[in-house]
């Protein structure tokens, strides 16, 4: 039986499970743990290393989720065969679709400023585990059968309450449709709204939705932005009758759409018989000023389709997102699309329902707001301290990422490659632009949700060196 010996240090800020996970991943990538090797059981490894079984379990789960390890029923966990060619290949043209794939990070990366990451060490593992088990009691055996196509009602009731209180969305649970991710929602909406319509999106905008629209074969126009968000004159001049926007925190530039632009957008939709898809992906995290309620809350004519997700505020792997349909679209959905079954597991729905209903959700959100605010403030302080006026920071009002325009005459790919050489992963912004429309000064995207404060410190110090900013 394989023994694994690793020095884990509980004094480090990095949690033990991450230390164990990184160690095992390194051993696999570097070939010391070979494919098909059986890993020790949770119990054995936890006794051997003097750590809890939960720590081992969490590290193992992460390795399984990332494909490093496979679980074989009744046999145990085995090292997977790694395709070495999935490790990042450097390419000049970052806007290629291939670059949207999330490759495992090279082993040399010390700090990953990925914008899709969240603070894993703050996830309430024990509560979630307890509620997951509770959802599996025999009295709940009905959950093993198919549920309501829109998602289970108790969860929709909780979501409606939360949306009203936290985001100013006015809706009945009947208007909510739960589904596995924003891209699924976008795909579904093109069917519901019709593929003959012309769609518009912010340019730059959320690349995953853009590709989902394109793959549906609809005509999609990129509309440029000014400091308040989507440019109304360009939208008005276009033939679009559906506009996809991120008003609470423009993705990726980060501006918050002011009320005047929101009213203009609603006016456009009313006058042109159009719809607005409001993607409110991280609207819970706002750091300056008062919370700005959703666009949906201002809409009295049934023009706004609200999209929400638990990916940023809870965990991305849950794959629970939802849309709120305005009444005219709801009847079309019920008449024409009721054949489509729900895509999210009822067990996860029930766990999330219990989590919300018992008050854990609002506590978690409160906690995460404080955590992310603190991380952002550490990041901004360090950027000012180390980079001074050699950079411009963009989009600090909300969310889990900022953009950094670096004035050192490096191109976007040079900034990324130089950072990677010192072990720091920062991300391109050009991928969010329509082809050939990226003409700005080089900018990189820095997510801070998934990094610890000491990693932020380390990362910014290394970037100062990599980008020669002294
Ligand atoms: C702009 C935007 N919308 C939506 C999402 C969430 O997508 P999903 O619900 O598929 O996880 C993200 C996550 O990164 C995002 O950046």
TrEMBL record:
One of its GO terms (molecular function) is transaminase activity. It comes from the Bacteria. InterPro entries: Aminotransferase_I/II_large, HTH_trans_reg/aminotransferase, PyrdxlP-dep_Trfase, PyrdxlP-dep_Trfase_major, Tscrpt_reg_HTH_GntR, WH-like_DNA-bd_sf, WH_DNA-bd_sf. The keyword Transcription applies. Its cofactor is pyridoxal 5'-phosphate. Keywords: Aminotransferase, DNA-binding, Pyridoxal phosphate, Transcription, Transcription regulation, Transferase. The keyword tRNA-binding does not apply. Residues 14-82 form the HTH gntR-type domain. It holds the Pfam family GntR. In the C-terminal section; belongs to the class-I pyridoxal-phosphate-dependent aminotransferase family. This is PLP-dependent aminotransferase family protein. It comes from Robertmurraya beringensis. The lineage of its organism: Bacteria, Bacillati, Bacillota, Bacilli, Bacillales.
